[in-house]
Structure formats: structure tokens, C-alpha cells
Amino acid sequence: MNRLSIGAALVAILTVGATAAAPAQDALDAPFIRPGQEGVFPVKVGVPQQTARRVIGHIAGREVLEIDSPGRVGNMGKIMVEDPDGFIWYLETREDKAIKVDPKTLSLTEHYLPRGSGPYSHAVDRHGIHWITAHGIEMLLEFDPKKGTVTTRSPPSFGFLIHINVSPHDDTVYFCQPGANQIVAFHRDRGFKEYRLPTPNSGPGRLDFDSSGNIWFPGLYVDKLIKLDPRTGGVQEWDLPVKHGTASFVRVDKNDDVWISLPMGDHILKFKDGKFTSYRIPTKGSLVSTTVADADGFVWFTEGGWRGSAGGNKIGRLDPRTGKIDQLTIPTENAQPLGIIIDREGTMWFEQMNAGRICRVGKPFTPVPENRRSSEVRQ
Q: Which of 41, 65, 158, 358 is the most exposed place for a label (fewest CB within 10 A)?
């Protein structure tokens, strides 16, 4: 038994609110797909289950509740999402699963995607459709939980298909292909469209949208912030003030300010009106990655998980008005926190992608009975 397994066994003794996990449905019943194999495949659904959970600390007055994933192998996708019904989702990459979390009861339900897909990153559109990059087989997955199907599509080019997002303006799906130095769009009515970038080997990373529909993303390998106008194909680039930081993640806030994470540079940057503001993370080798902003303007971030590295193994909160940073260390060594999001209630969620756990950051959790939650969902 390795050190992580021993630690998990010890803390399970102190677990609060845990019940025995329901037996997992046999994933071998799921169909197997190969690169380039397009079609519609059924998705099997497991039994909702409660897993062990425990409070691991507090940060800025918020409780951090750790929840065991039903997955048996710690290797999650790169981002969590909230669907239109308020459920939280994450991916288990090595086990080819999408897992739904009920935020009211904390029950988890496994959805078995086609075997061999290697789901990596995902986004949800306004209709509750999940768009997932199948990293290992270079395909786009359209997962409809209500129909219980996955539709697979093969992009016109290969290029290390990674991060994905959906435009809130027209539900067009965009994903980056750093190996092909391009951004790719997909819409059901228009098919695929490729946008090649003018700077060679840019390494486009995690992308987001401003209020005008422009796409913002980092140039991972060239120390640039890049804006793409998908209507014209026009591209603008800005040199980052911190060099060799391997900018990996971009988020556009409600004011159209652009936030850039530099995992190898221990910085978060804000870009507004053509100027950068730099915030240094106090942890050396932090691997600061995903960020979100709460209703009070504080920026929350994770430290770890970028390219499968431990990093600072923390979550943090930045006050952009003062530069003050609060941090909380994850108790499990090399947990690799990543993929933080904020839901409609103001609660935050992130993964411990190497420890096989997720975390809830908010007010102390008071569970709603399962039968009451089920009634609410049916309405």
C-alpha cells in the first residue's frame, strides 16, 4: 500500500457523514471506441452513492469539505462544470467517466462514457449538453445526460486536442489544438472551422469569451496573451510582462478583465485596457493554475496539477485591491488541486486530481434529504 492509500485509510476513521458506497456498475459494459470512430454510443449510469467526506480546513471564513470520488484511480479531468440544473460535474480520465455531484446531498452518480475515450476537459452549454475533449483519441464528444448518449466527432486536423469551452452567445464549441497551432470551432449547423494562429508554435491554452464574443487564450510557448475575433479570424497579441511562465489558463470576468495564470512563473496577471497588473504567488514553484472570482471580487486559485505536478499543493484567495493572499495547504501530499469553479450559490468546487477527491468551499454543509432533493429535481 502506498503512502497516499495509507493516509486515506487513516482519515477514513475520522470521516463525517459517510455511508457505504453503492457497488459500481461494471464499466466493461460500456462500448469501446477507437480514434476516428464516429457514431452515437449509449452511456450507462451507475447508482447514486454517498462517499466518505471530511472537513480539511478553513480559508477566509469558508469551510473546505473534502469528498472521496467513487473512481478507483486518481486522475481527473482539467476542469469542473455546473450544468443548467445546478448539478456539479467532473471527469475521471483514466476510468472514462463523467461524475455528477448533487450539491444539496453530495451524492455522486457515475456515467460511463465509451471506453478508450480518455475524457480530458469539458464545458456545458445552455441546454445541458456536455462537450468533452477525448484527449487520447483526438475526438470531440457530445454527451447528453438526459438521452444517455455520447456522439463522437473527428476534427479535420490532429493537434493534441486539449482545452474546450462553449460560447454563451451562440453555443459554438471552441477547443485548442496546440500541436496544430490553432483554435477549432464546432457548431452542429456549420460543422468544424479552424483558425490558424500567426505566431508559430504559440501553444494555445485554456480559452474564454468576452462580452463581445471575442476569444481570449494564452500563448503557452511564446509568453503572449492572444485575442481571436471568430467573425473575422483577426488575431491580436500582447507580450506578457513575466517571461517563461508558461501561461496556461485564461479567464474573462464580468467586467471583461482578462486573468492569466502562469504556473511556472508563480504569477497571476490581470489585463485591462491594454495594461497588465501582476500578482506574485508567495509559494515558490506554486504551479498556480485555474482561477475564479467570487461576488466580492476576490480571486480564488489552485496550486498544483499542471502537467501532473505537485506544485504548492494549496488553494488560495487573492484580494486584487491590496495584493493580499490567503492560502490553505491540502493535507494529502501531492493531491494536485485543480479545476476550481464557482456555482450559482457562490460555493466553490475543485478537484484533487491525483488524490481521487473533490472539495467544496463554502458555508458548513447541511445536507438536504435525498428524497426531498429528488422531488425538487422532478419539478
A: 158
CATH entry, 43-378, from 3.40.50.2000, 1.10.260.40, 3.90.190.20, 2.130.10.10: 2.130.10.10
In tens, the pLDDT along 213-245 reads 999 999 999 999 999 999 999 999 999 999 999
* Model confidence, pTM: 0.90
- Kindly tell me the burial class for residue 323, based on how many C-beta atoms sit within 10 Å of its own C-beta (0-12, 13-18, 19 or more): exposed
> Under the phi-then-psi rule, with left for phi > 0, alpha for psi from -120 to 50, and beta for the rest, what region is 376?
alpha
What is the per-residue DSSP string for 163-189? -EEE-TTT--EEEEETTTTEEEEEETT
Scanning the structure block, which residue is given the C-alpha cell 456522439? 151
DSSP letter for each residue of 298-352: PEEEEE--GGG--TT-EEEEE-TTT--EEEEE-SSTT--EEEEEE-TTS-EEEEE
Q: What does the alpha-carbon distance between residue 63 and residue 301 come to, in Å, rounded to a whole number?
A: 16
- What is the domain partition of the chain in residue ranges? 43-378
Q: How many CB atoms lie within 10 A of CB 123?
A: 20
Q: How far apart are CA 44 and CA 50, in angstroms?
A: 19
Cβ-based neighbours of 348, under 8 Å, separated by 6 or more: 62, 292, 294, 300, 340, 341, 342, 360, 361, 362
In angstroms, the Cα distances linking 239 to 220, 222, 271, 295 are 12, 8, 11, 30
Q: By three-state DSSP, how is residue 370 classified? A: helix
pLDDT tens readout for residues 321-348 = 999 999 999 999 999 999 999 999 999 9
CA distance 238 to 224: 5
Handedness of CA 321, 325, 328, 329 (dihedral sign): positive
Distance between CA atoms of residues 179 and 159, nearest Å: 4
